[in-house]
Amino acid sequence: MNHWLVKSEPFKYSWEKFNQEGRTFWDGVRNYQARNNLRDMKEGDLVMWYHSNEGKEIVGIARVVKESYQDPTTDDKNWVVVDLVPVESLKRAVTLEEIKADERLKDIGLVRQGRLSVMPVKREEFDRILEMSAQ
After folding, report:
1. What is the CATH number of the domain that holds 83?
2. Domain containing residue 60
3. Which residue among 18, 26, 94, 104 has its CA within the 20 to 30 Å range from the CA of 76?
């Protein structure tokens, strides 16, 4: 199983709205590296949900339930989506500031490639963020 992080601006699509709906496809990705990451997602992979711009914090965990397929919001065959379902809200949101301050997370993609909207997360980084959430 792999681990990922996706970013969403809460005013466009929040963790709360995602939980109300219970399932979504992750669309609107128009960056080739992020698209390639979507293509690499497998059913069962866990995904951290990051509120960007407002909040700047990881707020929950989702699961990939359908692997990549053509983005239904465009006819351009270059773009794909995956289907996600919510798994759980973090006990406490973990902020970008906290992540940057943690030596064990110094190489996480969220810090190194801050503008990328879909990125892999190492298992130990995933586990560390869950540990921080429980504090």
Report:
1. 3.10.590.10
2. 3-133
3. 18
Q: How many domains does the chain fold into?
A: 1
Q: Measured in whole angstroms, how far is the alpha carbon of residue 82 from the centre of its chain?
A: 12
pLDDT at 68: 98
Strand extents, DSSP E, the chain:
3-8, 24-25, 46-51, 57-70, 80-95, 118-121
* Both structure tokens of 58: 């990881």
Please name which of 21, 52, 25 lies closest in space to residue 41, comparing C-alpha atoms: 25
Beta strand pairing call for 118-121 and 3-8 = antiparallel
Residue 51 has which token pair? 């509120």
Q: 10 Å Cβ neighbour count for 68?
A: 20
Helix (H) or strand (E) holding 30: none
pLDDT value, residue 114 = 87
pTM across the whole model: 0.95
pLDDT mean values, one per 10 residues, the chain (135 residues): 97 97 96 98 98 96 98 96 98 98 97 94 98 97
